[in-house]
Amino acid sequence: MAELADQETMIRVMMDIEAIKKLKHKFYRCLDNKLWDDITECLTENVTASFYGGKFKFEGVDALMRFLKEGLIPARISVHHGHHPEIEITGDTTATGIWSVQTYVIDRQANISLSGMSLFHDEYVKEEGEWKIKSTACGRIYEEVWDRGEIKSLKLTQAKEFESPDGQCRG
Predict the structure, then answer these.
(1) Domains contained in the chain, number
(2) The pLDDT value given to residue 160
């Protein structure tokens, strides 16, 4: 009987880890597509965030969302790829995670591009059966910025809408 309980626990832990991966992927997808209302679904109301070694700190979902919206103005195209998650379930409703995140940003207003790599340290909490980001802290490994005007052959083509495999347009 103990073996069955152990298997059920292992399955629950694996399902929780997968749910946290989906949460983080949703966060980045919504961030890059500027789906601000959908991002808030990923966060606790009292979320805390610290970026670039504490240079930028925020408490609460409203403060964090204000920062994200101001940073990702319409003239900026971003891509965030979260890789190699190290997720640990620390309790029935708590977990931690470390993510390697590759970032690429095109700023059409300033005519620059940025490429960078960061490590994110997150805390998660399960609220009403759903995992949410309770805190996130980002430390930059590297950041490279260049002037897009200096590259003579550079051409940017951006789709107005992304069409998914199911034929539905995603803005």
Answers:
(1) 1
(2) 64
